[in-house]
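Q: I have 340 residues here and want to know how they pack in 3D. Can you give me a structure?
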Amino acid sequence: MARKTKRYRGTNAEALLRRIQEENLPGAMLISTKAVRVNERDPDSPEILEVTVQCDDEQARLGSLQKRWRTDDSAADRIERVLRLHKVSPEVRRRLVQQIPPSEAYVPPADPDELRDILTRALTGTVPVTRIVPERGASRIVSVLVGPPGGGKTTVAAQLAAARGASCGVISSGSTSTRTSATIFDGLLPNAVTARKAEGAKDLRRLLDENRDLDAVVVDTPEICRDERGWIMALGEEETGRPAWIFRYHVVLSLTVKFKNNLALADTYLDHPVSSFVFTRLDESATYGDLLDLPCLRRIPLGALCWGGGAEGELQTASPEILSQLLLPDEAATRPGGNR
């Protein structure tokens, strides 16, 4: 079995080891622990702990599975096996296979590209997706990012603002670390995009009023407890006479967290109008079943996917084509679009 290396960063050793344990990595083995800088290019940036773990490479299992396919295996059989490997739930697997027309489902595909095309069409009819990056010209959009700590909200906020450009601003609210946010924002945001800090609901409303010239604002929230969630999720209730902003709430989750935990986290926000799920740390996971299960089972669109973290992060709008490339990758590509 091929092996791969994964690295985890944080300030608390016990929390890092607990996270590794929760991920239930196959054949996991602790390799090393060391102190590193948050920003390796800045000698004055704070130190955090980095833990290196080696585990079985499940992506290699997919390549092995493809080599073992018999020439008479139907498209439906092959897609079913791929979905099982990615730990897609039985309910969503059934829905996907039902989307394949009989004329394609029960005959062997000519090549991997044809199988990927069949899977893309099945995903199009099964997994809801939406565009999270506001289109240029779409005015007064406030993208509020909510989710658990360490899920990648600050990275997603910086990527969204950078994609929109100078007409967008970023506001960090509540207990979000000013220093951590500034480190990431400084490495990503164009000079014209400003990042500000809000200390509460009134302060956040004041900042929105002061920046009426912007077309879009991204709000990077802290870990939201029950007491804080009310004012965060009620920001869209504008007072009479106030220029209206359009609020869109996006739940940011890490793909490295177990599905049942992500499901429980997502459910804490679904009593409010959530626009999409955003998944981060795709580069740290080899199975992608959660990308299909959560949107399908909770009927909330998948908005965006994020690889990497901090200034090195990369955000892509979710689509059936990207999902099929993740589930059935080209041997030469590490993620959709090839090596980047």
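Q: Anything worth noting?
A: The longest strand covers residues 47-56. The chain has a mean pLDDT of 76.
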